[in-house]
Every structure is written in structure tokens, then in C-alpha cells.
Amino acid sequence: MQLQNSMLHPLGHDSFDTSASHRNPHRNRDQEAQLEEKRSLDSLKVFVAHTCEVLGMWRILCEHQFHVIADYLNKVRYLDDTIYFYVCCSL
């Protein structure tokens, strides 16, 4: 019987008093603070990664003169729409 009890409670703790908050509340607060700090650092890491992506895309747009390409595409689209309009109206 004692072997069964030692297997169920190897450290001698009651099943009702095994949480860290009951044993050492200061340690629990430290763990919570560390966990919150880790979450904050993880969020910062995600933010920095997204910022790098946006800056990389911005660099590509600037290097390839996106404003010139967009202006050209707007003119082509306008011409396509105009041609489509004239074709549809002439039928």
C-alpha cells in the first residue's frame, strides 16, 4: 500500500496542493512576468519581420519606377475600355 502511495505522490505533495501559486507565489509572479516578456518579444519579432517585408516591397517599387508602370497600365486600361465601348456600341 505504501508503494502505491509513493507512486501516486512521488514528491510527497497532496493532490490538492501541487500548484506553484500555493507553494511559492513570488515565483509564480516571476514566471508570469517572464511569460509576458516572451509574448512581447514575440510580438516585436513579428512586427519587425512585417516591417522588413514592407520596406523590401517599397524598395522594389522604387527601383522599378512603379509610378511609371502604373501610369502606363492606366493608359492601356483606358484604351482597352475605350475600344471595348466602341466595339459594343457599333454592334
Q: In terms of per-residue confidence, which ranges show pLDDT below 50 for 5 or more consecutive residues?
A: none
Number of alpha- plus pi-helical segments: 4
Distance from first to last alpha carbon: 98 Å
- Number of strand segments: 0
**Amount of beta strand:** under 5%
Taking the sheet with the most strands, its summary is: none
The H-and-E topology, N to C, reads as HHHH
Query: Oligomeric form of this entry?
Result: single chain
Give the helix level as a range of percent. Answer: over 70%
| Mean pLDDT over all positions | 76
Large-scale geometry: elongated
SS-based class: mainly alpha
Query: How big is the Rg?
Result: 33 Å
Task: Please provide a written account of the structure.
The chain is mainly alpha-helical and 91 residues long. The chain has helices at residues 2-8, 20-23, 25-63, 66-90. The mean pLDDT is 76.
Compact overview of the structure:
This protein has 91 residues and is an all-alpha fold.
Write the layout of secondary structure elements.
Elements: H1 2-8, H2 20-23, H3 25-63, H4 66-90
